[in-house]
Amino acid sequence: MSNTPIELKGSSFTLSVVHMHEAEPEVIRQALEDKIAQAPAFLKHAPVVINVSGLENPVNWPELHKIVTSTGLRIIGVSGCKDASLKAEIDRMGLPLLTEGKEKAFDLRPLSRQRPASRRKTLIPSQKRD
């Protein structure tokens, strides 16, 4: 038995990601209901991540959130969000902003500390000469 009341451990889960390509609430609702009808046992009350990278600004996040949850899906996070005001709105609603593992990492050092591409060293394997 552990000496502490909790343990914090890492774990991985397979989750469905709903990629939004349309921000019109009624279109989203109908598309989700159609998808859920195809596999109700699997999708009813399913935890999902909402990817908003395909949406144009501005996005009415409270309305989209309401539409998605009205279908029975459980939003556990949002990915693909690049817009600062949308990020703030999602955060205010208490949802985590997630980064997908395959998203490109960015160099966060100040530009003055990054080496220009022309000055970066390129390693070329040496060729054996006879």
UniProtKB/TrEMBL annotation:
Which species is this UniProt entry from? Salmonella enterica subsp. arizonae
| One Pfam match | MinC_N
Q: Which GO terms describe its biological process?
A: regulation of cell division; regulation of cell septum assembly
- Where in the numbering of this chain does the Septum formation inhibitor MinC N-terminal domain appear? 6-75
This chain's protein is named: Septum formation inhibitor
List every stretch annotated Disordered: 108-130
